[in-house]
Amino acid sequence: MNSTTQEISELRLPFFILYIVVGCVFLLLHLRFVMIIQSTRSLVKLPAYRCIQHASIACFINITTQIIVVAFTISQNEMNYTLNTIIGAIFQGSWAAEYPMLLILAGNRLLSVASPVLVNRLCDLKSANAVVALCWSFGLFNAILCLSGQVQTLWIPTAPGFAFTEGTFLASFLFYMDFYFAEFVVVSSLICYISILIIFLLKVYTE
């Protein structure tokens, strides 16, 4: 590792250490949350909690990959390219599986507030399992693309962060697909939660 990288690592060392500590705390919280849902029969049977459970699992995997690469950066050891590629694929796959679930949960919450009767008809456990399976399939699709050799998601210590490799059509396709889909998820989820707030305010002021 060259002197520039060492200097950057030293300057960011407190941040990296804090990142790992906070990451470990969130790992424990997600693990505990998943265990609580799994051990509580009344929660396991609820469609929304099924989505929340799998979103937590995806987030757990995602945070784990970040802790691993940050630990490599702190130790100033050169990460093997193959290992970097595999970890990057897992990172991308778990992230791609997680963020659609966030939109589904936002839509579920909006429907629960706006029409409780309708949500009971549309959002059953079978449909929740199907949606979760689709989200994991999308994540797996992303991970496979990152292992195809045409595009990789690699940890860049000097950035620091994960970044797509460039130069191929598949790399551009994956980048723009995830970028615009993520933007759509963020905007749509925000609209759902703002709508929920408006509905609550209208109920408060009209009663």
UniProtKB/TrEMBL annotation:
InterPro entries: 7TM_GPCR_serpentine_rcpt_Srx (IPR019430). This is 7TM GPCR serpentine receptor class x (Srx) domain-containing protein. Residues 33-198 form the 7TM GPCR serpentine receptor class x (Srx) domain. It comes from Ancylostoma caninum (Dog hookworm). The chain crosses the membrane at residues 15-34, 55-74, 99-119, 131-151, 179-202. Pfam families: 7TM_GPCR_Srx. Keywords: Membrane, Transmembrane, Transmembrane helix. Gene3D superfamilies: Rhodopsin 7-helix transmembrane proteins.
